[in-house]
Amino acid sequence: MSTALSEDIAVLARARRTGLGRQIGVTLALVVGILGMLVLSLSKGDFAIPFTDVIRTLLGSGDAGNHFIVIELRLPRAITGLCVGLALGLAGALFQSLLRNPLASPDMIGVTQGAGVGAVVAAVGFGVSGFALSASALFGALATSTLIYLLAWRRGVAGYRLILIGIGVAGASASVISYLLTSSEVTVAQEALVWLTGSLNGSSLEAFYPLLIALLVLFPLTMIAVRPLSALQMGDDTAAGLGVPVERSRRFLLLCAVGLTGVAVAAAGPVSFVAFVCGPVARQLVPGKGAALVQASLIGALLMLVADFAAQHLLWSTQFPVGVVTSLIGAPYLLYLLARANRIGKGG
Hints:
The protein is an all-alpha fold. It has helices at about 1-45, 50-60, 65-100, 110-125, 130-150, 160-180, 185-195, 205-225, 230, 235-240, 245-270, 275-285, 295-315, 320-345. It is globular and about 65 Å long.
């Protein structure tokens, strides 16, 4: 008996070491990919700059011309896309893990659409722009998520009920946005449409700093809030039996996820499908590691950098908003997921 027990313990230890090694390897690979895409984004453009000169400029030893191009023109867009991807990847994985459904990402259940309503109302109705527009988008996300939560409340919040209500609110939000755009001036409507597609055009260091500050607050809060997530994924009754304050923990996690979504949308508009695809991909890369939140966040950053690079340099001679490319990536995945769910008779 003791020999068999020792063998079982040894097998579990090896499996744990293998899983940890894979987790570290995937994380390092994603970090290297992000750094590589960041340098490539700063190097490529109308005026190409060698990689070595880009690195020297980032380290503070480049010449004045390279400093202007890299630091003033290209870096704000690249780091904004990186941070937006981090926030959306983490928010999407949180929603999906908390509600135990791969369709439960913020762009599927109305949170990003609510942010869009807030921004469009502010732009069309009051003519605001810049930081005020971003604040309006964040307020819209918070207000919409609160409405969805209240409508889904029935002595608790069930995942499927929240998702269905969120889809309904998303449809209503899209109708409101369409009405506002059709009743506004052509120039305002065109600018709003570009923003609603999801765009990093016009990114600046001044607009980046509020995003950075928000993420420096939200990321630590989220890492604290996720401690009971494993128990919540087992079901409310099991989590309560383990001593987890279910509704309080769920509300805290949802608030963190909504905050991450809101600040990301405020910075770049409602970029489609980034939050949707990162969680499932991360769980495939690191199986058996629960929500894989760190990996999902890094995948979001890498996806945003790749998509924005493609939107600027690889799609014909026209620069597209980054949301166009992420939609080209995410829409086929959504169709695949729906077909798979229909085939196996499950929701994901």
